[in-house]
Specification:
The chain has one domain (3-85). The mean pLDDT is 76. By secondary structure, it is of the alpha+beta class. It has 2 helices and 2 strands; from the N terminus they run H-E-E-H.
Length: 86
């Protein structure tokens, strides 16, 4: 068998397998991703280890989304409270 022809056949096989998986993947279900910078620090005093400090910094988009959700939730609670008094 001609080596060039075998390589060409392998190329078509790879392309067909790739197309099968690419077309069969379907729609992806989107969900938010959170980017967090995390730090861990060991705290010591004269007796040794006195604690552990954990620091989490959320990305600005996620932080603004959470603040917006909290404000909306607070507004809904205010409206429910107002309706309960009626």
């Amino acid at each position: 068998m001609n080596p060039n022809r075998a390589a060409q056949g392998l190329g078509w096989t790879v392309a067909l397998v790739y197309a099968f998986f690419a077309l069969g993947a379907g729609a992806a279900r989107a969900h938010p991703h959170i980017f967090i910078k995390q730090r861990v620090a060991a705290l010591f005093d004269k007796n040794g280890l006195s604690g552990i400090r954990l620091t989490w910094r959320f990305d600005p988009l996620y932080s603004s989304m959470m603040v917006s959700a909290a404000i909306l939730g607070f507004a809904v609670l205010l409206m429910i409270g107002a309706l309960a008094q009626v």
